[in-house]
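Minutes, project check-in

Agenda point 3 was the complex the collaborators sent over. CS summarized: two entities, 540 residues total, and the question is how they sit relative to each other. Sequences were read into the notes so everyone works from the same version.
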Amino acid sequence: MKPVFFIILLLLLMVPGCGETPSEFRPLPAALGDLRGVAMGFERLQPLDQGIYSAWLRLEKGDRVGIGTFNVNSNGQPVDQQGSVIDRFTASETLFSAISILIAIEPTGVIGDAPSDAVILQGPFIDGIATLVVPFPAGIQQASGSYRVFTPTDGPNTNEGSGVWAINANGQPTMTLADINNLYMFEHFMVINGIPVTMGRFRTTDTRDLRDPWSGPLTDAAPEVPGEDFLANAPAGLTFPADLSGSQLLVTLEALYGDLVEPSQLVVLEGTLPEVVGGEIIQLTNQTANFPTGTAVIY
Amino acid sequence: MRAHRHSSSAITRIHLTAVLSALALSFFTVTKAEALTPTMTGFARISVPLIAHLETGTSPKQQQEGERREPPPVNDPASGPVLSAFGGSVFSGKSAFQTGGAIAYFFGPKASVGLEAEASMTFGPGGRIAQVMGSFIVQTGARTSKFVPYIALGGGFLQASTKFPDAKTAIFEELGINPEPTRESAPFIQIGGGLRFYIKRNLAARADVRVARAKLDLDGVKLIDSLFRMRRVVGMLSWEF
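CS then shared the predicted structure for the full assembly.
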C-alpha cells in the first residue's frame, strides 16, 4: 500500500467535517439513533400577518436548539416564507434525547439565540412524540364571566350604551379567571365594526385594568374592576361615543413581553353584544377548547 | 455550536494521536523484537558452531542436519488462523449494541501481518445494521509479549434498516409524511487498532476500536458531504488454532 494512499485515508477518517450527519432523513443514522429532524402539524394555529413562529427543542443536557422559523397555512401545516410546506425541520445535532419543544412568536420576524417570551405552544417529548398545547394558567378552562353595559366615567344616564364593565348591578366583580402565570396577562378587547379596540390588560378581576384610553373624565367614578367606556380619543375608523350594539367582547391571554399582535389568538372568553341602551348583562362563554394544539415528532 | 466544534476538534486530535502512537509503538516493538533475535556475523558466525562441536563432540554439519529433522516447536500464539467473537458499542447518535464474529489469518514467522474478515449485527435504538468488513492488520508479533498492540485498516459493506414505533407511524400518517427510504446499503472504510492480551497460549482477550466513514447515497451532494461517521468499541475473545 502506498504511503500517500494511507495518509489520504487517514485524513479522510480523521477530519471531523468529513462525516457530518446529513440533514435529510437516512436509515443508517436513524437506525443508530442519530435523529436530527422534526415534523410538526397544528390545529387552529392561526397564520401570522406580523411576526413569525419559531421552534425550539430542549435537549437532555439542558441545551436549547432552534430548528427554524415558519408560518402556517390553512391546513395547519408549517410553511416557509414562500408558502412551501416544511416536512422536516433539521438541527445540527442529534435530537434523539430531546425532552421538550416550544413554539414562540417572534414579533419582529427575526430569530435570536433564544425564543421570544411570546410562547404559544409547548410540550414534552415522550418516545420522540410531543403533544403541543398552550401553556395556559391552570384553571383557565373553567374561566367564566359577564360584563354590564354602562358608562360610569361620564356621569349617570349619559351614553349608557357605550361602555362595559366586569361588574354586576350590585357592584360585585363578575369574572372568575385563573391565577395568571409568568407568561401571560389578560387583556380585553371590544371589536367594534370589525376593528379590535383594547380596553387594557389586567392580572386580577377585582382591580382596574392598566389602561383607560377611551374613558370619560370621571375616572374616579370607575369601579374597581376591568372595563372601559368608549367615549373619547376614538382611534382611526371609529367614532366615539361608540354604539356597541353587535360588537364582540373578547378576553384574551396576551404574551407578557414581545406581543405586537392584538388581540392574540388565545381567546379565553367571548361574547357578542345585542342592541344595547345600557344596563344589559353580557354573558361570556369560555373559548379555551378552541386554543391551538399541535403535534411534533422526532425522526 | 462553537463548543461542539471545539469538542469535535479535540476528539479528532485525540484520535490522531492515539492512532499514530499505536503505529509508532507497533514499529518500535517489531524492531526491538527482531533486534533481540540472536544473529551473528563474521568470525562469531563461524566460531559458535565450532564451540558447539567442541562441547558436544558432534560436527556442525551433523548438528545442522539434526535441527533440520527436528524443527523447533512453533510457540508463536498469534500465527495461523484466529477465530473471534465480540460485543460492544457503536457510538453515532445514541449508543448501539454490536455483536458478531471474525476470522483472521496471520502470516510470517512473527505473525506481524494478517487479514481478518468480520460479520456483525448492530442493534440500534432506531433499527438494525448488518455489516461485513475486511481488515489488514499489522501487529507487533505475539512472540514478544503477552500484550500485542495492533493497527487495522480496511473496509466493508453495511445494510441499515429502520423501523418506527407504531405511535410515530400513526403520526406520520396524520401529518401526511412518509419518511423514505427505510432501508439503505452503503460501503464504508475503517481504521483503528487495539490490544490483545493472551490469557492462555491460544486464548486472548482483545479490545478493538474503529472509526469508519460510510458513503451514503445522497443526491446532489459532494462526496465529502455524503460520508457518515461511525465509531465503535468492542471487546473480543479470540481463539487460535
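Noted in discussion: Confidence is low (pLDDT under 50) at residues 1-9, 26-54 of chain B.
Follow-up: revisit at the next meeting once the mutant set is ready.
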